[in-house]
Structure formats: C-alpha cells, structure tokens
Design goal:
247 residues; Rossmann fold; seven-stranded mixed beta sheet; globular; TesA-like; hydrolase; Thioesterase
Length: 247
C-alpha cells in the first residue's frame, strides 16, 4: 500500500509512462492478489491496479461491505482521482457487477472507462434465487469447492477457512441480493467473457450484457467453468491488449 493507491488499490508494478490504466475488480471472496499475474503480464504497457475490498488480507480487520451499491459508491470515490488517464475496467464474477456499477456512477459525472471486460458473470438484470450466504459454513465451503477457483488444500486448513469465511459470506450476500434495473446502461463498450461450463452463467445470460451498453458489444466463450481465466490467461491477456491502448 502506498499513499498514491491508499487502502483500496494495489499497484504491483510501476508503470509511470503507461497511457491507460486497467483497474481490476476481484470475485466474491477474492483479493487484489488474484490479479498479480495480470500486472506481471501487462505492465509497463498498462498501469494495472487491482481493487482490495475490505475484510481480506491486510484489510481483514475492516468490516465487509455487504451490498453492491454501497461498495460501488465507495469505490467510485477511490477511482475518481485515477481518471487523470484513460481507464479500462476488468471485473470477474462479482467484480464484473461492481465494475459496471462504478462505471454507471462515473458516467453520471461525465467520465467513462474505455471498455468494460465483464468476466464470469451473468448480465446485471439476470436474476436467480441464491441464498447460500444464509446457510452454514460448510455450505459456503462446498460452494467454493464447486466453483473450483481455490486451492483445495487451503480449504482443508481450519485457520485459513476461519479467516476467509467472513469476507466470503459478506460478498455472497452483496452479490446475491443485488438488483439492477433492466434499463441500466453504460455508454462504454462491453466485452463479456464466459466459460462454457460455468454453473453460475449460461451463454444466454452472458450474452445479455449487450442490453446494458449503448456502445459496442462482444462475447468470448472459453472452455471451462467459473474460473476459466486460470486456464486461458494468455488468451485473455491478448484480448485485453487488443482492446486497450498501451504506451
């Protein structure tokens, strides 16, 4: 953490000459560290920053924000000072919705990201009834195992499980209680990314992101489940560089 990035942002590698900032928004239960490989791959051509939500890692003593509008409000205030350069947003799972809501708030202030990459998440107005955040700890852990994004060895360590459960439950509550008006749109282009075997997103649900932009829309489908990114990192990095101007 530095005075420049504060508590909410992590810059893993400096990129003082980069033309564009890529701001990355993690999934439910995730942390900024998930995007360290992105910074390694794309810096210094892009200034890569990753959001660090409260309630995890060095912010684990802070209470989680358990609703998306409040989280987006707080993050908008943090992103505004970074708008001195063009920005692009990349959000995975819950992070895609958070990025969308931040983009909506910035647009109301006359600022827009150059592009929003919406990864691993159905369109904001696609609703499902999901209540696992109300269930016991074992149900939460079972859901994490089902999605496959976490090293199973970590889930066998009681101390680690105890540490991650509060942020996981808080994030699940936030995203599972989120509601979006069907006519909510941003002007920025949206590029949706999805796995063809994601239990949380059908291809139709991913395609409906096109209803939430007045700009261009693309969808890219990869083999794999909810964390298809892990197996297709090189292809995703190419997609980003093809759509975000570098130095």
């Amino acid at each position: 953490m530095t005075p420049e990035t504060g508590r909410w942002m992590r810059r893993f590698r400096p990129a003082p000459d980069a033309r564009t900032r890529l701001i990355c928004f993690p999934h439910a239960g995730g942390s900024a560290a998930y995007f360290h490989p992105v910074a390694k791959a794309l810096t210094p051509g892009l200034d890569v920053l990753a959001v660090q939500y409260p309630g995890r890692q060095e912010r684990r003593q802070e209470p989680c924000i358990q609703d998306i509008p409040t989280l987006a409000d707080r993050l908008t205030a943090e992103v505004l000072p970074l708008a001195d350069r063009p920005m692009a947003f990349f959000g995975h799972s819950m992070g895609a919705v958070v990025a969308f809501e931040v983009a909506r708030r910035l647009q109301a202030r006359g600022i827009a990201p150059q592009v929003l990459f919406a990864s691993g998440r159905r369109a904001p107005s696609c609703l499902r009834t999901e209540t696992v955040y109300k269930e016991g700890d074992q149900a939460l852990i079972a859901e994490v195992r089902r999605l496959g994004g976490t090293d199973v060895r970590m889930l066998e360590d009681p101390e680690i499980v105890e540490m991650i459960l509060p942020s996981l439950r808080g994030d699940y509550r936030a995203i599972m209680t989120y509601r979006c008006p069907p006519d909510a749109r941003i002007d920025a282009p949206v590029i949706a990314l999805t796995g063809d075997a994601d239990p949380h997103v059908t291809l139709d649900e991913a395609m409906r992101w096109k209803e939430h932009t007045s700009g261009p829309f693309e969808m890219h489908v990869y083999s794999g489940g909810h964390f298809f990114l892990n197996a297709h990192a090189a292809a995703v990095m190419r997609l980003i560089t093809e759509n975000v101007p570098a130095t």
